[in-house]
Amino acid sequence: MTSPDAGPVHFSRAAIVGVGLIGSSLARAMIENRLTDEIVGFDADADALSRAHALGVVDRIAADLDGALAGADLVILATPVGATKTLIGEIGGAVADDALVIDVGSVKGAVAAAGALSPERFHFVPSHPVAGTEQSGPEAGFASLFRDRWCILTPLPRQSERYKAAVDRAAALWRAVGSNVEIMDAAHHDLALAVTSHLPHLIAFTLVGAADDLETVAEAEIVKYSAGGFRDFTRIAASDPVMWRDVFLNNKEAVLEVLGRFTEELAVLQRAIRWSDGETLAKTFTRGRAIRRAIVAAGQERDVPNFGRDEKKS
Amino acid sequence: MTSPDAGPVHFSRAAIVGVGLIGSSLARAMIENRLTDEIVGFDADADALSRAHALGVVDRIAADLDGALAGADLVILATPVGATKTLIGEIGGAVADDALVIDVGSVKGAVAAAGALSPERFHFVPSHPVAGTEQSGPEAGFASLFRDRWCILTPLPRQSERYKAAVDRAAALWRAVGSNVEIMDAAHHDLALAVTSHLPHLIAFTLVGAADDLETVAEAEIVKYSAGGFRDFTRIAASDPVMWRDVFLNNKEAVLEVLGRFTEELAVLQRAIRWSDGETLAKTFTRGRAIRRAIVAAGQERDVPNFGRDEKKS
C-alpha cells in the first residue's frame, strides 16, 4: 500500500540524534530541500558531533539529549537499532507535544514494539530508508543518498487522526528527499529485509572473514585478484560493525529462517560440484540473469550495465 | 614471480576462437594497440560470429576451426574451460609451427594438463586475465577491460628456449593491453582464484537462487529493496552460466575446500545470532574494513569510496 501524497512538508526545528552516514545525509537533504528552519544535533560521540557542526550538517549542538529534543517538531533517531530501542523509552519526557519522531533503522519489529509503549502525545513512525554506503560518520553523508530509493514506514497500530496525520507527514518528509514511500507491517518488513539486506551482509561478512583466515592464500593475492568477484562482497562487508551487530541481534528469527534456505541451496550446489552434475549447476546459475535485469530495469542499480567501461576512456 | 619485460610485441595474424566478452575485448584491445595485422574469428555460434564481424571485432570469418588456425602466429582460445580442454587436444594438426597459443579461462590446472599433451612445435601458454563483467557476447566486449587488471600465466613445464620465448611473448601481449602479469603454478592459481572468484560466484548464485525460491517475499519486493545489499550479489550472479558450470566442474577440489572454510565460518555466525552473542558478531564484522581499504588502495575497485555520490549531482 502506498500512502497518499501529503503535500509540502516543513518543520521549524529538527533534532537529529546520531550524526553518522544516515543522520548526516538526511540533515543535508533537509537543508538542500529547505524542509526545516533549524537542525539541532546530538551524538554520544562528541567528536563526531563537533565535526558535523563544522561541516554545516547541524546548525547547533545540543549539550545533552533533552536539550536536543526540547522544542523540536521533528525528532530523527539515526542510531543503531539497539540504541534506538533504548532511546524510544527514554525520550518520552522531553519530546514536545505532537512532535513527529522517526528512526531510520534496518529492523522494524523490535523498534516498533519499544515505540508502542511511548506516550500518545507525540507520534513515533518507524521508518527505514533502504539506502546506504559502506562509509560511516558525518563526512560520509550526502544529500542525494535517498533519491530514487525506497523508504518503508511501519506505523504503530494507532488509529487517532493525529497519528495518521503524523504518518502522512513522515511519508511527505521522505518523499521530499527523493524517496518512494511504502507502508507495511513491521514483521513483513523484517522478513523482506532479511532477504534483501541482512542475509547478503551476513554472507559478505562471512566470505571476507573466511578469506582472511586462509593460510594458503596471502592477503596480497586476495587483493590483487579481487576483481574476479571477491571485491563485490567487500563493499558491503566494510559496513559499520555495530550497526550490523544490532541488526542481527534484533532480527534473529527472520535472519535464521532465510539463512536456513540459503544453506539448503548451498548444500545442493556443493553436492552438484562434488558429483560433477553440470546440469544442476547450469540450471541454477541461469536464474541470476532475470533478477539482475529486473533490478537494472527498476533503476535500483546505479552502475550502468557496461560496468567500468566509461571511466577508462579518457 | 613477475616475468621480465619482453619489449614490443606484434603478430601477423591472430586467430580468435570464441568471440564472447573476453575474446571480443582482447580483439578490440589488440586492434586499439596495433598488436596484429589481422584478426580471424571463429565461433561455434555462427550468429555471434557474424555479429562480431559486423562490429569490426574480427577482420575475417573463418569457415571452420582449421581455417581460423591456418597461418596464425597467435591463437586465442576464448571459450569456456570445458571447450578449451577439448580444443587443445584437437588443434594440434592445424596450428602453425612456433605459434603462440593462449587461453583465457578461470581454471588453469585442468587446461594445463590437457595442454601438456600438445606437440612441442607450437607453444601453449595458459593465461587467465582476472577481469570481466556480468555481460556476455561480442557486443559486451571493450578494449579497456584488461587495463590495470592482473593476468596470471601458468606456463607448462617446458624448458626449451623457444617455449620460454613464447611465455615472454604472451606476457608482453597482456602487458600491451594494459595488464600486470604474474606467473605462478596452476595449482596455486586454482586455489587463489577459488577464494577470490569461484567461491564468491557460487555464493552469489546461491543467494539469488534462494531468494527466487521464497514464497513469503515477492520478487517485486526483492527488486525494490535490493539497494540494501542484495543487488551487490546480482551483478556477479548474472554471469554466463555455461562458463561458470565449467569452472566448478574443473576446479572441484579447491572450490570444495574453500567452501568448507566458508560454511564453518557461517556456522559460527549462525550460532552467534541464535545465542545473541554480539561480541562475536561485532568482532567478525570488523575484519571487512581492512581488506576493503586494501582493495581500494590497490586500485582494484573502480568505484570511488564515495559510491554513488557524484552521478546524482546534476
Tell me the strand percentage band of chain A: 5-15%
SSE sequence of chain A, one letter per element: EHEHEHEHEHEEEHEHHHHHH
Number of strands of chain A: 9
Discrete helix count of chain A: 12
CATH architecture of the largest domain in chain A: 3-Layer(aba) Sandwich
Main beta sheet of chain A: strand number and arrangement?
6 strands, parallel
Structural class of chain A: alpha/beta
Give the C-alpha Rg of chain A: 21 Å
**Helix coverage percent of residues of chain A?**
40-55%
Instruction: Name the CATH superfamily classification of the largest domain in chain A.
Output: NAD(P)-binding Rossmann-like Domain
Query: Biggest sheet of chain A: strands side by side, in what order?
Result: 3-2-1-4-5-6
CATH topology of the largest domain in chain A: Rossmann fold
Head-to-tail CA distance between termini of chain A: 46 Å
Mean pLDDT of chain A, rounded to whole units?
91
| Poorly predicted runs of chain A | 1-6, 303-314
How would you describe the oligomerization state of the chains in this entry? homodimer
Please identify the top-level CATH class of the largest domain in chain A.
Answer: Alpha Beta
